[in-house]
Amino acid sequence: MAASSPGPREVLAPSPEAGCKAINSSSGRRGLLWRLRDKQLRLGLFEISPGHELHRLTCMMQAGLWAATQVSMDHPPRGFELGTLAGPAFAWLRHSLGLAEEDYQAALGPGGPYLQFLSTSKSNASFFLSHDQRFFLKTQRRREVRALLAHLPRYLQHLQRHPHSLLARLLGVHSLRVARGKKKYFIIMQSVFYPAGRIAQRYDIKGCEVSRWVEPAPEGSPVVLVLKDLNFQGKTIDLGPQRSWLLRQMELDTAFLRDLNLLDYSLLVASQHLQEDERGPGSSLVFRTARSVQGVQSLDEPGAPNLRLLPGGPNALHIVDGPEQRYFLGLVDLATVYGLRKRLEHLWKTLRYPTRTFSTVSPALYARRLCQWVEAHTE
């Protein structure tokens, strides 16, 4: 299996405005009931439509991704360059997840506008959702992309060995350059919070306290905010018999990230009430043995993969059902290396916050602390 392609695959794409024409034409064909249902499912999200400051950028991303995932093109697009990095490796991963290239192309192409939510991140990254909310797109710094690609072979090996890993499934890394301008980089991954229809609250957990509070939206507000550690105080994740699986998988995944010298990743957490027909052993819980063990060693061998009950539905790898609640869980932001920059930041924060916990610590401490948070907040 190839871990990376020899170099970026440059795809010429048309003007971004031309790439978005399909959005308007397809929306005109949608029925009223479909549009009302779609609007309800998008509460708290904002369409990146004409006039939005990021409209031009997202149109180029859509048109470029549409072209990049086509086997052949009768009319090669032009106007900007979209590079596909490590294309064969990510194509293999999408295939291993049962994701058809046609579905991937349709969700990311110009069939509908990308969506945006109010980000509580302190980075300068831009965040988007595909129009069906299945895929999450995020702009990345060049050094972060380098880290991702450097660790890609080991990342794929870890997912093969532990097919129920909590690590976010990265589906693509791309560069985008207009004319002779500076390249922008972005990643595509499965959205942890999918399907989002009944999710009440979302959390980004790092296992520390400095800068880990978000002022909640007023009651009744349609705004979707991702809350943080201090907002989670007094709450627990009730997993019942699946708690032991989660604790073990957190150990396996954070040990892997520690060995890559990574820190500052987050555990995304969200929940929704299980409906009556979703509860109990006779409901949608199925132990998918064939899918779970395909391509990994025997379950009797030492270090065998940590398998679990998977709910019968979309995005099963990021969903864990407890007795009363369905939880959406995933480890994201896997590209921050504990290098000189972070070591200096650690020293500065040690002086500024001598009695408080903060995120910039050694990878070993970061991994241990996040596992301790999960153990303390689950039952």
What does this 3D model show about the protein?
This protein has 379 residues and is α+β, with helices and mostly antiparallel strands. The protein folds into 2 domains: 9-190, Phosphatidylinositol Phosphate Kinase II Beta (2-Layer Sandwich); 202-376, 2-Layer Sandwich (Phosphatidylinositol Phosphate Kinase Iibeta, Chain: A, domain 2), CATH 3.30.810.10. The chain has 12 helices and 15 strands. It has helices spanning 16-19, 21-28, 32-41, 55-68, 87-96, 101-108, 142-150, 152-161, 243-259, 289-293, 340-352, 363-376; strands at 9-13, 46-47, 80-85, 115-116, 127-129, 135-140, 170-178, 184-190, 202-205, 226-228, 266-273, 285-286, 310-311, 319-321, 325-332. It has a 6-stranded antiparallel beta sheet. A hairpin with a 3-residue loop joins β14 (319-321) and β15. The longest helix has 17 residues, at 243-259. It is globular and about 55 Å long.
Biggest β-sheet, characterized? Answer: 6 strands, antiparallel
If you compute it from the alpha carbons, what radius of gyration comes out, rounded to the nearest whole angstrom?
A: 21 Å
CATH class of the largest domain: Alpha Beta
Query: In DSSP terms, counting alpha (H) and pi (I) runs of 4 or more, how many helices?
Result: 12
Mean pLDDT: 84
Q: Indicate how many domains the architecture comprises.
A: 2
Instruction: For the record, give the distance between the C-alpha atoms at the N and C termini, rounded to a whole number.
Output: 40 Å
Shape: globular
DSSP, total strands: 15
Strand order of the largest sheet: 1-3-7-8-6-5
